[in-house]
Structure formats: C-alpha cells, structure tokens
Amino acid sequence: MSQHGVGPRAVTRSVAFLTAGVLAVPALTGCGSEDPAGKPLAAPDIQPAGRDRIADGGTLRWAVDSVPDTLNTFQSDADTTTLRVAQAVLPSMFRMNADGRPERNPAYLESAEVVETEPKQVVLYKLNQQAVWSDGREIGAADFAAQWRALSGKNTAYWTARNAGYDRIQKIERGDNALEVRVTFSRPYADWRSLFSPLYPKDVMGTPDSFNDGARRKLKVTAGPFTVKKVDREDDEITLTRNPRWWSKPAKLSEIVLRTVPRDKRVAELAAGTLDVAEIDPAAARRITVTARPQSSSSPLTGPGADRSAADDLHSWAVANGTDEDAADEETVARKKLRKASARYAGQQQALRGFEVRKSLEPAFTQLALNGAEGPLADERVRRAVARALDRKELAKAVLKPLGLPAVPVGSHLALSGQAHYADNSGALGDQDTKEAQALLADAGWVRGGPLKEQKKKRKEEEKAAGAEGEKTSGEDNKAHGGQDPADHLAHDGRHYQHPARGGAPGAYAPKGTAAPANRETAPLAKNGKPLTLRFVLPSGPGSQTLRTVADRISRMLERVGIGTDISKVSDESYFKDHIASGQYDLALYSWPATAFPATDARPVYAKPVPAADGSLNVEQNYTRVGTDQVDQLFDEAVSTLDEGKSRSLIRKADSRIWAAAGSIPLFQRPELIAARKNLVNTGAFGFGTPVYEDMGFLKKGAKPASGPSAKGSPAR
C-alpha cells in the first residue's frame, strides 16, 4: 500500500455529553425506512468482459510488494500477497460482492444456513459435489474439523495469529452424507460466514508441525482455479498455474506471476513491458493518464527539464559555450544527461500508451489516531477538541477530488458506505467547530498566555540559536502564508513542500528572534507551565507523501484552535513497530480495512486495554489505547445474536460511542489506483469485491470489453 495500513483480519452533528458516566448520543440513523448503509461510493473498475471474448492462455505479470514469508493466512507474518495467493488457489465458502457483503461461493457451496438455534446454533454446509483437492481427494468434514482444531486456541503448539470464531465451535461432524458438514457452536456466533475462508486441507491443519511449517514456503495441495507452481525467493516471484483438477469454469490465463517490484520502479517496469498490472501512486497515474490526451503546443511539458524556463535554457547554453572551460565542461555533461533522461522519459511515455489507470476506492480508510494513554490526549476533552478542529470534508476533498473519486468523509469506524453495518454516526461527536474546540480546551484547563516554565530563562539562548540551528518541523512552522497552499498539490506531484520557517499573518514579517507582543489571543495554549504541543509521527518513505501532506493540513487546522504539533518523520520499517504499536506518539495517520464482520474483526481494534499478568497493558490492536466497557459489551452482544438486524443496530451503537470517545477520527476512504494493459479484462481496481481469478485474461484479437457505461472511477449507482 502507498499509505500505511494494518489489517485486523487475515493479513493480520451534535455534541455527545458524558454525564455521570452515561453517554447521551443522537438517535441512530437506522430508525427510518431508508437503509443507512447506502451504496458504495465508487464502483469496481476492472474492464469487465464475457468469457467468450477472452483469449485462452497467456501469462499475467502482476506487481506485488513482497514475496511473503508464509502462505498460511492464519500466521502473524502473512501479508497481502499471502491473501492474494490464497484467493487464487484455496477454497473460500463465502466471498465479498461489489457492495462488500458476503455471498455464497457456488464453486464450493450448494448452500450454507443456520438449521438450529436451540439448544445450540448449528450451521449446515452442503458442498459442491465436484469440489476436490488437487490430489483428487474430496473436500469434506475432515478438512473443516482440522482447521477448527488448529485455530480453536486450545492447543498452543499451533502458532496461530487469531482464533476468533473458531473458539466458539463445539464440534464438527459429517452430515447425512459426505457432502454435508454440520458445525455446532458452543455459543451463538453471528459472524459464522467469516469462517473457513480460506479453507486449508487437513494435510496443512492436521498437526502443529504441518501448520507451523508446512504452508510457509509451499502449498502442495490446493483447490482453486490455480495452484502454486513455484515460490522463487531469489527472483522474488511466485508463479501460479492452472489447476488441472479445477471443476468449475477453467481459468482463462495459463499462469499468473506475482513479482516483487518496488513502487518507485513500477512505471519503468510497465514501460519496459515486464509488467501487465500494478498498483501505483497518484504521480504514476498522472503519467499514464496524460499519454491518452491529445498533445498540442499548449500542452504542459512533463518529465526531466519540464520546469526549465527559456531563460534557464539560454543560460545553460551560454555557460556550455563560455570561456570558463571547467564550467563549460560541467554544463555540457549536465546537458547531455538531461537530453538522455528526456529521451528515456519520452520513450517510456510512448510505451505507457498501452496502459490505462483503473480507479476505485479500497475497502479501507485512513484515520487520525490519538494516543489516549498519556499526555494531553489522555483527557477526553482534548481529544474531542482535536476532532472538532478538523474539517474532514476538506481533507477528503484534498486527497480524492484530484483523482476524480468521490470526496466523501468516512462516517463510521466499523464499516464503509454500502456495507451492511454502515451508518454515518459522526454526529455523536460533531462536525468541525472552532469555537466548540476552543471551549473544550478551556474546560480542560488549557488557556492562552499561560506561563511557560523556563521560558524567560531560555529566551535569549533560543533567540541566539534561531539563526544557526536547523528547522524543527512543527505545526506553527508548517503554516503557509500567501501563495498556493501546499496541500493543493496533493495527488498532483510527488514533492514535499517545505513551508516558511515562521508563522503569522500574510504580509511583511519581523526578523527572526523578534519577541511576540503580549497578546493573549495569539499566545500558545498552556497548562501547568507546559505548552499544548502534540507529537505527530509520520512515515518518511516515498509512498507516504499523501499522508505527510494531509498531516501538514491537519497541523494548520489544529493551530487555529491553539494546538501545536511537532512532526517527526521516521522510517517506514520502524513506523508501526517502534512508534504506533509501542505508543510512542500523540497523533498518527494510518489505515484500517473495513471488514464485512466488524463484530469479530473490529473488536480487538477498539477493545478497552486491560492489564496483563506481567503488569504491562494488553492493547491487542487498539493502538490509540482508548476504549470503554460499554463498547466492549456492545461488540459482545452483536457477535452473539443471530438476529442480523439487531446485530447491525448494536454495531452502529458501538460506533457512536467510539466516535464520542474520540480515540480515532476516520477521514477518507483510500484511493485504489491500478495501471493495467488496455486489453487486460476482469482485473483492476476491485473495490469491495473479491477477484474472480478464473475470469481474468486478455481480450481476443479484435474483441471489445463488455458494452455499457464504464465504471472508471464513477460513483456507484
């Protein structure tokens, strides 16, 4: 991913008041007749085509971020490539449709339903009679039982990353025949459709040794349209080939090669003809999109030297032909390098004409996380003030509008628009309101012009050092004055803009070191001798430019209500491990996927942290350290009721209370930008939907994709 994100599953408008511990929230949206879940904001963009239009054969070369350390999705080091392989080669009883809702996978299931609720919940699976493993053995109850035992949590010899749902199963047995599997639960489980997707063969799940090591580097037995042919860690690629025992519609492609390609190398690889499809960043998307536009003398120049003026060119020529031989030689070399780079760029642009950008919105959202464990943000009033200072509509617009995607803020922590559990519950906290944010801060004891410890003592040293020391990135230093707002460049270029060193009103500036007037309205907020300044930790890698630009804009919003920020940019490798997971931050930006099973998957993300036996705090995946007993109770009730309407209502109530606690603020749904060959069909930006690998392929010569309106980045209807 171009933005940092973590996954709780396989890859591993009024104010709310707290009075005497009781939360008063506005009425939930679901009381009316209209479904508050709505529709997905953007449709999938996969260039759909019927199978009769697709050529038989061919190899699809697909860029991925890594060759995973394991092919077992239930292990802690599984990643997105692990999941992609599993989708192509293993059974899944249910898969996601375009609305992000689970639907039966007919290749494996004839039916699956709750057949008993008393005294115990019983789910009866009726399997497709043709479904077999690649070794010829029928898929059956023995595979279900082996996976349950491995993931139940009862045998610690299995190195599992999660056991949610499987720990509620009491027994698994064969039904009336070999095609029926009866699963009996010890406790009711609303999210039973989340289980056995993927399903591994008993050869993998049967013993701790086979589970821990048997599926890390290879999968001998599979049951999907493809099978794993080779995992090549030297060349960093995985080759999938057609499964000759696949009983459903045969795969159109002969092979799929998943190859590790760094994101900053993908445009060059696409242009060189060594890739067919790749997730890309906004800058790469612009390069591809511009190739489809008719070129004219008025078209803006792109590529190396595009920002050079006529005066720059004239000066360069003059130096190269001047009397200073050393300068002339140096400039001549530079001009040759520029010509070479320009020619290479032009060649790449020509090659990129064979590609197009397919775009949608990922089933994931970017949030602002507020660490409530200590410091100013331990006070709920300060967290709520931060939230009320943010203009989420502006942030969504800055990220998504330049990409031609719907710029709508996310209204739920637990689902996205179109998913069954979605409702916009942000009213439990309220919209942007500067006065309300300032009132909350004042109520928390933060006042303007308060005395700062050692300020007078250090003033002279600071003024003396101001001209000599390097800049420290802070909310005040990040303010832009006059000219174009750097955030307006979001998704337009890949550069990081450095703001002016000092803040203040637009116009003339006093020299560095000039003392500010004693004006309480412009003085920083302070309490107990300390200024209100929050540590804003961000990743520094090239793929995180959007996050950093969003952070700059957030810092300016916070500055308007008196909250300062110290931005710390850390390496991508240490961002989660050393900062987010360990709690070494006040503010941070990262993403969570939106799952169809929030009662199961989202609970560890928002569960109230509890002390562990060794005295440490067990936060599970709740990196904000903000949680309540009431939210935990609502999750427990939602996962334990088999009334789907009631379960959705409980999830929405939980979300309202998560909003009110202000531990994290959902901002916008993540953009999904995919570069794909124009003749590649049924592949691209999948949105909520699970890819159908057997239908991917290249158009026959002269064939056209399916007729009808294009879904390219268009709002879903």
From TrEMBL:
Residues 460-496 have a biased composition (Basic and acidic residues). This is Peptide/nickel transport system substrate-binding protein. Pfam families: SBP_bac_5. Residues 500-518 have a biased composition (Low complexity). Residues 289-310, 451-527 are annotated as: Disordered. InterPro entries: Peptide/Ni-bd, SBP_5, SBP_5_dom. Residues 292-301 have a biased composition (Polar residues). The lineage of its organism: Bacteria, Bacillati, Actinomycetota, Actinomycetes, Kitasatosporales. Residues 115-293, 345-455 form the Solute-binding protein family domain.
